[in-house]
Amino acid sequence: MPFATTGTIAAIATAIVPQQGSVGIVRASGSEAIDIAKKLFHAPGKQVWESHRILYGYIRHPQTQELVDEALLLIMKAPRSYTREDVVEFHCHGGIMAVQQVLQLCLEAGARLAQPGEFTLRAFLNGRLDLTQAEGIADLVGAKSPQAAQTALAGITGKLAQPIKKLRADCLDVLAEIEARIDFEDDLPPLDYEFITAELQKISLEINRILATAEKGELLRTGLKVAIVGRPNVGKSSLLNAWSRSDRAIVTDLPGTTRDVVESQLVVGGIPVQVLDTAGIRETEDTVEKIGVERSRKAAESADLVLLTIDASTGWTPDDEEIYINVKGRPLILVINKIDIVETRYIASLHPGEINNVVKTAAAKNQGIDALETAILEKIQSGKITAAELDFAINQRQGAALTQASSCLEQVLLTIEQDLPLDFWSIDLRGAIYALGEITGEEVTESVLDKIFSRFCIGK
Question: Quick one: pLDDT band at residue 332, thresholds 50, 70, 90?
Fold first, then answer.
């Protein structure tokens, strides 16, 4: 549904958790925001209602004067605010009731409930942010690791927008040269074909460099799902506990202890990792264990990476072979656990030679975890840049636009090579310019805005 960006909007701007949180914020933005605040907020003494000043006082019902909350009021007059409109924030006591009552009073006083992302949408429409910065805000809110947060901040501060805007400006300069020859061919010197070709190739190379951040950026945003699979009692739960430095999974000497999938959230090399400790895969008549085994198989199928864990004390068994056959199509690392109870010279022969990625651990003694993390990073990294070293990282929407721009430039270069008229050059060059403009919002449709900002929370 298209956004309605008129009037004064209000929403709760902080997470609301029952009986938790010391402060809850209700934000209002628009031409009536300050008037609404004056109806609801009573500041004792001679406090001055100035921009960027915090007032102390009480929120009261405007008709009954019933006390609703003791609070602070932050005033930010346009254009020095997040939305470049008049903005007020009621800093109430946390929890549920206070902020909900204050929000209701704002709505009764003339505001309407903000749509998801509407505060940030107004910041974009009013020129305070471009689209890459707006999407960076959403990424920062949802960041799952410090590196993901840093990458999001890079987007907010314009590290992505700057090169994109320069690429678009360079394309516009080339287009101007071409169209000048179309309109004023007799009055200008001949077009320098070599210079134009070199410029377009340079632009295309930079676009592809930025495109290369897409995969690692997706890892930073969504993380990696890793499933620990194997026979019962090979040390899967011990591995999870050692890796997460916690006792998330129950560890006993009895096979079949883990009956369901146990999850833990970790960060490896700056990448969020969701680790799934699965039930031991075996044939069983136990109804509950059967359900756990089936869930283990599904977890392995959906995982980005499988850690096939075997017991060094028993070696490679027919059951290990059967599990391996079922998961060998997935990215896989073989974890040989319990190496502390096996002589070193026997370990090398414990697995099929076709498995190249092998890590040896003694999970019960917290040994081999660093080697496991190194193996995981080697598995997911490509090239020389690791996800933790990215200055910025594009998202799926930005990647699609860059791919379109790259395709258009390739077509322009092909057109030049085929010595077609200049009019043909300009068609695809305009397509590249439009695609680059979609990234920053210089060229954007209402449907694109709706798709981007509808994913935001209501108060942002």
Answer: confident
Write phi, then psi, for 343 (nearest 5 degrees). Answer: -65, 135
- Per cent of the chain over pLDDT 90 is 36
